Amino acid sequence: MTALPNDEPAMLCAGHAACPGCIDALSARHVLAALGPDTVAVIPPSCMAIIAGPQPYSSLKIPVYQPTLEASAAAASGLRRALDAQGRRETQVVVLAGDGGTYDIGLQCLSSAAERNEDFLYVCLDNEGYMNTGAQKSSSTPQHAWTGSTPAGKASRKKSLVDIMAAHRVPWIATASAGHLGDLQRKVRRARALRGTRLLLLLIPCLDGWGLAEDAGLATARLAVESGAFPLLEVEDGERWSLQSAKTRPLADYLAVQRRYRHLTPAQVAALQDEVDTGWQRLQRLVVMSPPPLAPATA
Q1: d(CA 238, CA 163)
Q2: How high is the pLDDT of residue 34?
Q3: Whose CA is closest to 177, among 168, 166, 186?
Q4: Which residues, including other chains, have CB under 8 Å from residue 160's CB and lie 6 or more apart?
Q5: Sheet architecture: strand order including 92-98
Q6: What is the pLDDT of residues 118-141, one digit of tens each?
Q7: Residues forming beta bridges with residue 160, ordered by sequence position
Q8: Are 138 and 100 in contact (CB under 8 A)?
Q9: Inter-CA distances, 75 with 66, 71, 116, 152, 189, Å
Q10: What domains does the chain contain, in order, with CATH numbers?
């Protein structure tokens, strides 16, 4: 695993239940280290819940609350208000949820919390499927990807959680990857300094579900960014978009390393490349059209 900065103590213990080489555990390790020990985590059923362990045991060195799959944002809202009532306004509340509990089952709850601008950081560990129950598809699964419930490839496109949350005009949204660690750490520190509903979307290449070697997680995460399949970006107040990555490789390089795409025809690869190119052009337009940053408030 990559080393933590000297001023960031490890909040995830060794000996947890993640698969060997799991990027979920690596990502959570750095997110929690950047947030620090004055943090409370909400972890619904997911791969991260398996990694954290069953209550009252935990591989995390901070308090963990495990709600039902659909209730993460509500639980985080309640914890935030309870901490505020105790005067613990600096204590961070973070949700560590998967895409099934975010894009699908927990979306209504997250939307309600975002509408109220509840004060917590919601981290979605997006491995693009229900991976710890048999690698079934979620609405985060990309089009044409093989899953346990789409053996011929998923027919529909991946849902855009960033656009959905931007429409809520929450204070801050970002995408990040453990394959670009400096960017990830910077974004977590920025999220820690903000208030209101914040969303951090992390791409988590699933070794088993995607069909990757045990040592291929980070390389695949980098390919996702470099091919434009997973751009690194930030959105402030639903209006100001910025990009932190460039599209430098063909999408075929990213698809080729994953078993879930080995059934694709050249025409399907070309169609997916066109979709990525179109999405990238849209992002560039959003960046250009973004209003300037707000001026700092004066006394």
Answers
A1: 8
A2: 95
A3: 186
A4: none
A5: 64-65, 39-42, 92-98, 120-126, 197-203, 172-176, 233-236, 240-243
A6: 999 999 999 999 998 999 999 999
A7: none
A8: yes
A9: 9, 6, 14, 37, 23
A10: 23-289 (3.40.50.970)
Strand partners, 236: 172, 240
At residue 230, what are phi and psi to the nearest 5 degrees? Answer: -140, 80
Pick from 2, 60, 12, 13: which is nearest to 222 by CA?
Answer: 2
Reported as a single tens digit per residue, the pLDDT across 184-193 is: 999 999 999 9
pLDDT at 14: 84
b/e map 139-173, b = 16+ CB within 10 Å: bbbbebbbbeebeebbeeebbebbebbbebebbbb
How many alpha carbons fall within 13 Å on the CB side of residue 93?
25
Give CA–CA dist 275/255, Å, rounded: 14
Compute the distance between CA of residue 213 and CA of residue 208 in angstroms, rounded to an integer: 8
In this predicted structure, what is the pLDDT of residue 3? 55
Q: Residue ranges of the chain with pLDDT lower than 50? A: 1
Separation CA 102–CA 230 (nearest Å): 17
Measure the CA–CA gap between 209 and 102, rounded to whole angstroms. Answer: 18
